[in-house]
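I hope you will forgive my troubling you with a question about protein structure. The full record is reproduced below for your convenience:

——
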Amino acid sequence: MDTSQPHPARRYNYWLGGKDHFQADRDSAAMIEQMMPTVSVAAKEGRKFHGRAVKHLAEAGVRQFLDIGTGLPAPNNTHEVAQGVDPTARVVYVDNDPLVLVHARALLRGTPQGRTAYLDADLRRPDTILRSPEVFATLDLDEPVALLLVAVMHFILDDDGPYELVRHLLDALPAGSCLVVSNATTDFMPPEQLAIVEAANARAERREDRVRLRSQAEVERFFDGLDLVPPGVCSVADWRPADPQAPRPTPAEVCALGGVAFLSR
């Protein structure tokens, strides 16, 4: 683990107000905040979207969750939300950050009735995930599974085949399964801010330091052939807010789109 290089999971933890980050992560966060001043607001709203989506699916009867790009432990982890609805819910967490592996024990403390597991794997190698002992021991792939890809797809570049990766994972799941995706977006960025992001991507020497912000149409493409849950793909702050009357950040402050959909085949 090279703590002199920033990592997305640790940087995200910093924006969420966590403690599992290093100076390189904080410096990287500060640089991004110069381009996107409300990025910490976006991170917090993305986390809230994650919690609301899991709760909605658990209340709809989904009892199995495959959380890829889980990041470091934070309040309202997937198993905490799902098992809060049904203690028998099962969760497999997947991430490729060694620091997440160090903290996996905290993620694995679920209810006695349910199951949780952690898998050290990369989204870009979906078969490694689908064929892992951790998945087979924890989830029944003949029963519906919620595939969670929250705040991770913007690190999957076009030449990684993002849509093919998602489809490959969905093809392994039965009818009644569902998909949750959120992705940073260009839709609400002024041209000058977008130019700064594109310049930063061009300067980045490591793939891990590049992001692929996507438009509404590009995010909706992840859900092709699926049945979107209303209100469809929208700002993560606007997806089924806990209190619709309470003030919340604007789409321009969040700059992230998200959606939830069911697989009907």
User: Anything to note?
Assistant: The chain has a mean pLDDT of 90. DSSP finds twelve helices and eight strands in the chain. The beta strands are 64-68, 90-95, 115-120, 146-149, 178-184, 227-228, 234-235, 256-262.
